[in-house]
Structures are given as structure tokens and as C-alpha cells.
Specification:
Length: about 250
């Protein structure tokens, strides 16, 4: 296989337990993610990586391929690694189970970038920020890139910082969208990288990659998502879907 998509689905959540099964217009959130990911033209296979029998049964009910993984995993990367370890695959796409507005073209753009450029180890997405309130929102991760669209830094703070008299609307700010693609080899490198001080400070796992000197390709997308961490986020998703947005 060239490309596999894996949706890590954890039942426990500090702020919103069982959120991946939260009802959205008559379907569990995880089903919305899976159905959108299934529309990708680049995926040769799509697997939900569960940590709980409740999620496994729900996934099987709506027709998904799902597997149980160890309950000891502390992050989605470890869960994905367990799933893909025995598989012969080139590229692995990490699709977040709590982003029911994910667009299939997001998946395709990341997969295509990694397949076409053999130098790349890892790729992700960014979306130009249009709502200025998101610039100062610590829950919206920002990213700055170099001239070749490799990540320079990810932060919850407003980056770049306005040190001059420039107005906010004169600077391009980009939201990081946490959909990741890796070569299978690099996935296992990434999994074993030490936690960096930057990661501890910002609570952003991808910073361990930059701290160790590896590069992350960042692809601009016109599509946006809403990560569901709270009941308020869930209501925002419902409103978007009712409007037919995304």
C-alpha cells in the first residue's frame, strides 16, 4: 500500500469523556470523521484505532474497519504506531477523531506531498486566519514557515509578534490544523523522540520534531476544521453542519 489513514479514537478525555461518540445530527462524531476520510482519493485503507470496546462496537456498527490497541498508550502517535507496525505501507496519515469537519482534500494534499517529494518525512496543514480573535486565542495554534513552507515554529501565542507599527490586518497569520502525515519509517523515529522543553512549555507534541532538527512541511489549505474539546465546540460544529459549511 502507498497510503493508509488511521483515526486514533480514545474514549477517555479530561474535558469531555466519550466525545468521539458524541451525537451530531444522529451520528456519532467519529462516524462523521470516518465518512469524510473515506472520501479521500489517496487512501488505500482507513482504520480506526480504538482503546475501548464501546468505540470498537460503535465503529463496527457504522461499517468501519476498527482495531483495539493497548490501553497503556498515552498519545495517538503510539496508538497509530501499533496499528501500522505490521503493515507494508509507505505513508501514514494521522486523522484526528475529534475533528468532524475534516475535508478529504486535506488528507489528499498531505498524502500527495509526501508521495511526490521523497525527501519529506512529515507534513501537516495550515489555514490563513480570517477571524482576528483567533490570533490571540491560545486554543488556536499558530504556525510560521520559511520560504519553502517548512515550519519554523508552532505556538499558542500570536506569531509573528507585531514589534513594529504594522496593523494586524497587514500581517498573515496561519492556524495550524493538526492533521499529520509521515513516512512509516519516520513515524517510528517520531514516536521515540525525547520530549523537548518547548513541547512541555507550549503543550504541543510536534515541537519535539523541530527541537531535534527535523523538518515539517506545512501545506496551506482553504478548508478549516473545528477540534471538539468542549460541549461549546460541539455546538459550533453542529451549527456549521446545519448551515452546510465545509
Amino acid at each position: 500500500m502507498d497510503v493508509i489513514g488511521v483515526i486514533p479514537a480514545r474514549y477517555s478525555s479530561t474535558r469531555f469523556a466519550g466525545k468521539v461518540l458524541a451525537d451530531i445530527m444522529g451520528k456519532p462524531m467519529l462516524q462523521h470523521v470516518w465518512e469524510r476520510a473515506k472520501q479521500s482519493r489517496m487512501l488505500d485503507d482507513l482504520i480506526i484505532a480504538c482503546d475501548n470496546e464501546i468505540i470498537l462496537k460503535a465503529a463496527e456498527k457504522f461499517g468501519a474497519k476498527a482495531v483495539m490497541t493497548s490501553k497503556e498508550h498515552t498519545c495517538g502517535t503510539d496508538r497509530i504506531s501499533e496499528v501500522v507496525n505490521p503493515l507494508d505501507v509507505k505513508i501514514v496519515i494521522n486523522i484526528q477523531g475529534d475533528e468532524p469537519l475534516v475535508h478529504p482534500m486535506m488528507i489528499d494534499s498531505v498524502a500527495r506531498a509526501l508521495l511526490e517529494d521523497k525527501v519529506l518525512n512529515m507534513a501537516t496543514l495550515m489555514k490563513k486566519i480570517e477571524d482576528v480573535q483567533q490570533i490571540t486565542d491560545p486554543n488556536v495554534v499558530k504556525v510560521v514557515v520559511d520560504k519553502n513552507n517548512f515550519a519554523l515554529y508552532f505556538s499558542r501565542a500570536p506569531i509573528p509578534f507585531l514589534a513594529t507599527n504594522a496593523e494586524v490586518d497587514q500581517v498573515n497569520y496561519y492556524k495550524h490544523i493538526g492533521l499529520y502525515g509521515y513516512t512509516k519509517d519516520f513515524l517510528f523515529t517520531y514516536k521515540n523522540l525525547p520530549v523537548s522543553n518547548l513541547e512541555k512549555t507550549e503543550k504541543l507534541e510536534q515541537l519535539r520534531v523541530l527541537a531535534e532538527g527535523y523538518k515539517i512541511k506545512v501545506i496551506e489549505t482553504p478548508h478549516d476544521t473545528i477540534g471538539v474539546d468542549t460541549l461549546e465546540d460541539l455546538e459550533r460544529v453542529k451549527e456549521q453542519l446545519k448551515k452546510g459549511i465545509n
